[in-house]
Amino acid sequence: MNLTQLAKIKTNGLCFLMLLLFAACENNGKQSKLTGYGNAVEESDNTVVNAIEQAKPSIMVLPSDNLLQSFDALKNVSINGANYLDRDYNKYILENSNNRAIISAIQNEFVQLDYPLTDLEQTLKSLNNRVATNMADDVAQDAKTLLLQTASPDIIIELDYDCKIDPTDPNFRKNLTYTITAFDAYTNKAFSSKTKNETVSDDIAKTFSQSFHKSMKEIEPEIGRYFQNIVVFGREITVRFTVAKKSKVSLVSESITGETYADWIMDYMDLNTKKGTYKLQNNTDYELYFVNVRIPALQSDGTQYSAYKWARQLIKEFKTECGVKCSNKVQGLGDVHIMINGF
Amino acid sequence: MKKKAFVGLAVLSIAVVCLCIGCNSNVNQQQQGVVYQPQPKQSTMTDEQRQSAIAKQRAALNGYLDSINYWNAVKLTIMVPKVTKNFTQQSAEVLASRMLQITAANGIAGYGGDPAFVFATLITPMQRGITSTVPAKKYTNYEVNFYVANIVTGDVFGSLSQEVMGVGDSDELACLNAMQSIQNNDEIKDLLRQSSEKIVNWFETNKASVVAKVNEYIQIGEYGKAYAYLQSIPEAAISCFAFAQENVDEVYARYREQQSMAYYYAMIDAMAVEGQYNPMAGAYMKLIPVNAQIYSTAAEAFSNYVSHCETVEDAQRAHEIFMEEEALAIERINAEANLKANEALLVQSRSEAENSAQSQAVSSMDGIKGTITDIITDKAVSIVSFGIDRVLGFLGLLV
User: Fold this and answer.
1) CB within 10 Å: which end of chain A, N or C, has fewer?
2) What is the pLDDT of residues B265-312, one digit of tens each?
3) Distance (Å, rounded) from C-alpha A322 to C-alpha A262?
4) Helix, strand, coil % in chain A, rounded to nearest 5
5) Which of B286, B273, B277 is closest to B322 using CA atoms?
6) Residue partners of A114: CB distance under 8 A and separation at least 6
7) Among B353, B394, B399, B358, which Cα is nearest to B376's?
8) CA-wise closest residue to B294 among B271, B272, B326, B262
9) Rounded to the nearest 5°, which phi and psi values hold at B231?
């Protein structure tokens, strides 16, 4: 083989390599589309279960009562001598463009963490649509069903802010004070709370966005600890036992085992909560109310051990051992309500 | 130099080994979690057993029908509470409609009849409130009291109390929702069945007063009221019903004769409509009794009308169609007459009840006291007073 032939082979090889490189680049460019797969691969079922992802809590940003009042979206109504608060969330959203922008800033931070929040405005719209589609489908609805046609987030991020001119500032700039508190909707416990004070530079929404971005560095680990707490200690729920009006038994009635139904329930709680974690808050003839109840998040086969399943198991055992029928009225991730109907 | 290179290589190797151990450890940690391996439920039923159980359950559910028993042809007037700030017109109409459906489903035959016998409701708001949900919901708990009673004598033949709850985005919607939730249930069926039996019994034991009442109406020339009263006697009240059957045709004939002047003028009005032959004119003509004083005048006017009708030939060609329309018109007029008679009887009954000492001292066949006066006073309004056209709409007889 002479030098010329060698040079030809080298040139051809180089061209071929360049073509390959070009094709690779082209492929990469195509995968950068919104619907492109990127590096995503479908997760196999037979992998370790993430208990939090499996029963992912929904998080929603809601304005505080104080904030609603400042935008005239909160009314005090007196009915039969009792005072009720009538909250108009739609009015709050529409009243000021900053309101929407601030919620959007909070949502954006969570999107960056790959945890999109449930939007309040969209939820209100879809609830409205549901009313119409239910009518069109001739859906059976009782009073309870109608009462529960609401936004039911598992975690509430309560927003409160105030923006006033700082009288001590020589330029009379505005001072933005905001408080962000994260609550568990079932236990009403706050697991993260931040209050910040900022001077408004351009506009309120921009100032808030920048400030909240910094606050998120403190909030994120607190939320992370809350989720880890579920994995380590079990999911925290509230449990309520009530008696139906038509029932001929109460919680203090004697069962066929010789003990009262309330005693039976207490023994069950000892055996079926994580490390016997629960606290009896109310004890009457017609109600037992437990708080700080911990149940495992996962079953041994990797399926969810939800509050509904926990209640279902109890109801089954209650019927088997005592012959008493109950209704399972569990809502969401952590609101357990078991109603005793009798025999 | 070589020594330095050797040391550098050793450090690098150690670093790589450490990195690998670290990664491995992480992987091991992940692999210590629970793997998703659900076990499907194993059924203990064979296919045949399952199909048989499904068929059995389906038959049990489909076999359930609201029993429609013809409760002795007792007729009841429906009364709903008057419209107030907390009880809107729309809610009243929905409640009235529900009560009509309930009575129809329970075989309460006919509509109206003796307005003295009523199926009434009293609505009492018990508890109202606003939830703290997103969005907020208004809720109201009502106590609904159903009564079957004779508003003249004050006798309560049956009563029932139920609680209904309404939920909505406003107080009005919550009230409407509560009224819509009132359904025909076993308790209401029992109430209507037992009340009907008691009403039949009342007619049988009070035949003398029924006869006296009818004769009184006839004597003072109130043939419409007499007719309405006779029509309301249920078939199961055998001897009373026999009396009604003996006299109803004659009373009705006298009523029509009494109405003949009104029919004559109505016929003249129908004739005044320009253009084609108006079947209403023919209907009114047919309702004027032959022996009525105005008959000959009416017949002459009608004959004149037909001969001068622009489309006489059309009327002859479409004779059958006009006959049908006339028959329908006659039905409508009869129904209208019946309802007007009932309305008159209702006014009469109310007046008697308000004046009667008995309405103050309530008597009750069930020991229920104190509430019948609420029905016969301003708290109640009869569905009859909603308007004749609306009522005819219910009966589907609007032309």
Assistant:
1) N
2) 988 998 887 667 787 888 888 888 888 889 999 999 988 888 777 555
3) 12
4) 40, 25, 30
5) B277
6) none
7) B353
8) B262
9) -65, -25
Residue A7 is predicted with a pLDDT of 72
> Which residues partner with A280 through β-bridges?
A290
Average pLDDT over residues A13-29: 60
Would you say B182 and B144 are in contact if contact means Cβ atoms under 8 Å apart? yes
Q: Is the pLDDT of residue A41 over 70?
A: yes
List CB contacts (< 8 A) between B165 and chain A: 143
Residue of chain B minimizing CA distance to A142: B181
> Burial of A161 by CB count in 10 Å (0-12 exposed, 13-18 middle, 19+ buried)?
buried
d(CA A10, nearest CA chain B) in Å: 35
For residue B126, give the chain A residue with the closest CA. Answer: A80
Tell me the backbone φ, ψ of residue B93, rounded to 5 degrees. Answer: -70, -40
Contact criterion met (CB < 8 Å) for B130 and A77: yes
Candidates B29, B35, B165, B187, partner chain A, best to mutate (most A CBs within 10 A)? B35
**How many secondary structure helices (H) and strands (E) does chain B include?**
14, 5
Amino acid occupying residue B248: V
The answer to whether B37 contacts A301, with C-beta atoms less than 8 Å apart, is yes
* Predicted pLDDT at B379: 43
Contact A45 B36 (CB under 8 A): yes
Phi, psi of A338 (to 5 degrees): -115, 125
Secondary-structure class of domain B77-203 per CATH: alpha beta
How confident is the model over A50-69, as a mean pLDDT?
92
pTM above 0.90, yes or no: no
Q: What's at B314, amino acid-wise?
A: D
Single-letter amino acid code for the residue at A41: V
Preferred mutation among A76, A84, A135, A141 to probe B, highest tally of B CBs within 10 A: A84
Q: What are the boundaries of each domain within chain A?
A: 59-133+141-232, 234-342
Structure tokens at B163: 């609680």
Query: Crossing angle for the helix pair B207-219 and B238-271, nearest 10 degrees?
Result: 30
Residue B16 in tokens:
């790589």
B132 and A142: CB-CB below 8 Å?
Answer: no
Q: Where does A59-133+141-232 sit in CATH, by number?
A: 3.40.50
**A142, B166 contact by CB (below 8 A):** no
CB spacing of B34 vs A120 below 8 angstroms: no
pLDDT (mean) for A159-187: 91
* Among B244, B247, B288, B235, CA closest to B266: B288
> Of A59, A127, A129, A120, which is closest to residue A89 (Cα–Cα)?
A120
Across the interface, which of A82, A120, A302 has its CB nearest the CB of B37? A302
Q: Could you tell me which residues are beta bridge partners of residue A151?
A: B134
For residue B135, give the chain A residue with the closest CA.
A150
Task: Kindly give, in sequence order, each residue whose CB lies less than 8 Å from that of residue A51, ignoring residues fewer than 6 positions away.
Answer: A230, A231, A297, A298, A304
CB contact under 8 A, A46 and B37: yes
Q: CA-CA distance, A80 to B180, in Å (whole number)?
A: 24
> Given the DSSP bridges, would you call strands A325-328 and A287-295 parallel, antiparallel or unpaired?
unpaired
> Residues of A at the B interface (Cβ-Cβ below 8 Å)?
45-50, 60, 62, 77, 79-80, 82, 84-90, 120, 123-124, 127, 142-143, 146-147, 149-152, 298, 300-303
Tell me which residue in B30, B35, B128 faces A302 most closely, judged by beta carbons: B35
Q: Is the ipTM of this complex over 0.85?
A: no
- For A46, the closest of B35, B134, B137 (CB atoms) is B35
